[in-house]
Amino acid sequence: MPNGAVEQRRRGNYHNSIVSIWQGGVEETAVCRQQPRAAPENLCFKTNRVETISFFDKIRKSFSRSISKKKGGFVYRRTANSIPKISGYFDFSKIEKISMASAVVLAADYERLKHFLNEVPPTINLRRWNPVVVTKLNQMGFFNILGHQPDENLLIQDGDFLLMRILRSVNSANLSQVDDALMELGAFVSDDESAIDEKVTHTLSIVSEVMANVTQHAYRNEVDFTYNHLSSFWVSAEANRAEKTLRIVLYDQGATIPVTYPILDRTKRVTRFLERVLRRAPKFDYEDDGTYIRAALRYGGSRTDLDYRGKGFPQMIQLLGTLGGGELMVLSRGGWCARASNGKVTSGSYPCSIGGTLVEWKIEL
């Protein structure tokens, strides 16, 4: 083949486009060498679970490759005055809706990358992002990780909503700040403006206990982790005064329920349940994950009452039943289990991992 034809073919394999990049300072024009990878229009683990989990799996693998190579350099400059270049990016301008839980997981993945590489990819074409998505991410503190000056206020009010920004905690002992914030959220939706009513106080005390149980043993020394992780927890919450609801999201990158639950000293009823439901020959690696999460929500502790991932979930289920409404969703590794407001429990699994354990409560007060 003639040299000219070879060169033309090589050029045909490249994709060059002009983009705008932001790294916390002034926006710059840059050249992108690859086609962007589009994000789902609806980034939500509840209403668009398959696409959302798959998208985060791609982000995690991409970031992990950079971490394992100890190579950042997301923006390349031949000289100080030359036009910057990037190899590719995830196109967040395609996102029309983003849930609180998705924003928390996104923040955790970016913070993990920043911890190990001391940098994150630039924000691409920010002016093209949906304004609603930008506002929500900004209120939750996502842009602080990307270089924006952090807001000193943990709680932000927007009409009938009071939002607790994403808070990272290194261990369960540091959750006192979350407890204080939840009390303020409870007061926001309480009937009595001068004091939090008894039902709200009781509810928040149980939520705090469950959060402590969920986080206390997430990072176990005997567990091998697929990806480099931060021994941290990410929490956010929102109070809706008009609907009198609290929504709380908790995420960690630690040992998952499907990893720790199978090795427990279980009671006979739990063993019978698992033997009846588990697949004899799973079609993919994580197919039984949803079953283990469902068992954790249904039965809770082991015979010897050892600490494990999932302790406290039956208590949360009981609380939702007592209140007469509310929802609970748990995603851990490749599985999920959800309790709807009518009490119906569903579960399932996917070939992709969420990279840890995500818990979301919606409490109707």
What is the structure about, briefly put?
The chain is of the alpha+beta class. It has a domain at 1-149.
Structure in words:
The N and C termini lie far apart (73 Å). The chain has a domain at 1-149. The protein is α+β, with helices and mostly antiparallel strands. The radius of gyration is 22 Å and the shape is globular. It has helices spanning 3-12, 49-68, 100-117, 131-140, 142-145, 176-189, 198-216, 257-260, 268-277, 289-299, 313-323; strands at residues 17-22, 28-32, 37-38, 42-43, 85-86, 90-91, 97-98, 123-124, 155-158, 161-169, 233-240, 245-252, 327-332, 335-339, 345-349, 357-364. A hairpin with a 2-residue loop joins β9 (155-158) and β10 (161-169).
Which keywords apply here?
globular, disordered N terminus, 11 helices, 365 residues, eight-stranded antiparallel β-sheet, alpha+beta, ATP-binding protein
Tell the overall outline. globular
Q: Given the structure, what is the number of helices?
A: 11
Strand content: 15-25%
Radius of gyration: 22 Å
Strand order of the biggest β-sheet: 9-10-11-12-16-13-14-15
Mean pLDDT: 82
**Sheet/helix structural class:** alpha+beta
Largest sheet: 8 strands, antiparallel
Helix content: 25-40%
Q: What's the number of extended β-strand segments?
A: 16
- The poorly predicted ranges are 1-13, 302-310
Order of helices and strands: HEEEEHEEEHEHHEEHHEEHHHHEEEE
Distance between the termini: 73 Å
Protein name: ATP-binding protein
